[in-house]
Amino acid sequence: MKNYECEVCGYEYNPAIGDPDGGIPAGTAFEDIPEDWVCPVCGAEKADFKVVE
Question: CB-side exposure of 31: number of CA atoms within 13 Å?
Fold first, then answer.
């Protein structure tokens, strides 16, 4: 699974960790996160994330 980075603040979503505080369990692929999820650091929308190469 690929990591995704918030283009607004630089937060990196790592699927191996998930976003426990946001209700996203470890092992959740970015594609499987609900569309209404927001960056836990700055509140940016899911659409503001890009794949980390």
Answer: 3
Q: Does the predicted model carry a pTM greater than 0.85?
A: yes
Q: What are 1-53's pLDDT values in tens digits?
A: 999 999 999 999 999 999 999 999 999 999 999 999 999 999 999 999 999 98
- CA dihedral sign of residues 9, 35, 25, 51: negative
Rounded to the nearest 5°, which phi and psi values hold at 25?
-70, 155
- CA-to-CA distance for 17 and 8, rounded, in angstroms? 20
DSSP string, 1-53: ---EEETTT--EE-TTT-BGGGTB-TT--GGGS-TT-B-TTT--BGGGEEE--
